[in-house]
Amino acid sequence: MPKQDFSQYVIEANCRIVKDICKPFILNDDIYMRIKDLFLLEVKKGLGKYTHKNASVKCFMTFVEKMPSGCERGKFLALELGGDVCRVLCINLQGDEDFKVDWQNFDIPINIKEDTARHFFDFLAKCLSDFVNKYDLQYDELSLGFTFAFPLKQIGINKGILVTWTKGYNVPGVVGNDVIDLLQQAIDRRGDIPIKEIVILNNTTGTLISCGWKYREAKIGVVISTGCNMCYLEKTKHIHLFKNVANRSPTMVINCESGAFGNDGILDFMRTSIDFTVDKNSTHPGKQIFEKMVAGLYLGEIVRLTVLECINAGAMLKGIVTNEILTPMTFKTLDMTQIEAEQENNFIVARKIFKKLGYTEATNGDCENLRYICATISTRSANLVAACLACLVERIGDPYLIIGADGSVYRSYPNYPTLLSYRLRKLVRPECKFDVVQAEDGSGRGAALLAASTRKRRN
């Protein structure tokens, strides 16, 4: 009697185990609706005079009271800081939506992220100096828009106090201090950068401004990259904490700092054991809880821990645990992007990544399971972001608006924009119409536009 082939049975059984382990990441619409409602409560707390202090979603003022007019002219610098790269741009605005951009990326050394404040800002000043000299801008009188993608309490358009570091940064001597002042000191130490004025903004605000230059209906900005954050145009009459100050314009852009949503435990009901582990092992435990479930810095680590759980359950890679799979942050969000971008039933990239993790004999079943894990976790990310955006769409209440979106995850992850828009349309009330538009040139152009509009107002 011939032997019975149990291989297909084993593959299917392993697949069931993997899907069972992934179940906590799959949430229904009721849960996303609850998250939307909780986010609204937090936004109201952040805007409130007596509740702001204890709000996880801080809703900081940006002092950006309106979108650019489209009539801005001249050359303006922008400096973007937020992930592993510092980006310097020069934007020559020629009006009528016409502009020219020169830009250069500078890799940020790992040690700089934890160096002294002086060395950190000296590094940024050197990046500016190198760029200015490369593009022969040393004889121009320039304004600079500084995109600083960390929680920032702004006191004005030219002054911002760092609340806390995120995204793996931990430079001492910066928290509680004015970031503009620290950068200006570094520029003055060099003496070779012709900066007349510096304005500061969050990268999410820059994304909204960039989008608003082209689309009058732009009211919300979102960045899903190394971190995640949102901003929106709020009526100043609702900004109770700042009522005595914010009365010059009927609206102002609010920087939500939505990455901290859940810091108070309000999202613990839907967090998985793996989410708690990622937070515990992070640079800043207990902070940026929402961000740690959706952003590029953490998605790969969530996948690694999920794969490890599947291996320990005997459902993947013959139950073998390598040193590489045990090493935190070895699996990157870029790996997820490449795996999901690969055609179905084609596992060349998946096997290459498995090899990096110490596995040379991964089966097709292992590769399929890895792709499923990546898809499940990336989908949850898009859905969670959509739940918070749905709250902002309804809060603004316009019959039609545009959401400006940017960030490496949004731009590069396969189907991420589609997943985000799909969930948004399911969560938003039918009478609220919207479109999600990728912001051109990201927050850099927005920073330069803010510098341009600020100079225009003061001239």
TrEMBL record:
Presence of the UniProt keyword ATP-binding in the record: yes
UniProt catalytic activity: a D-hexose + ATP = a D-hexose 6-phosphate + ADP + H(+); D-glucose + ATP = D-glucose 6-phosphate + ADP + H(+); D-fructose + ATP = D-fructose 6-phosphate + ADP + H(+)
Any single GO CC term annotated in Swiss-Prot or TrEMBL for this entry: mitochondrion
Alphabetic keyword roster: ATP-binding, Glycolysis, Kinase, Nucleotide-binding, Transferase
Domain Hexokinase N-terminal, residue spans: 18-212
Pathway: Carbohydrate metabolism; hexose metabolism; Carbohydrate degradation; glycolysis; D-glyceraldehyde 3-phosphate and glycerone phosphate from D-glucose: step 1/4
The enzyme's E.C. designation: 2.7.1.-
Single GO molecular function: D-glucose binding
GO biological process: glucose metabolic process; glycolytic process; intracellular glucose homeostasis
Residues annotated as domain Hexokinase C-terminal: 219-452
Similarity field: Belongs to the hexokinase family.
Protein name from the UniProt record: Phosphotransferase
Organism: Glossina brevipalpis
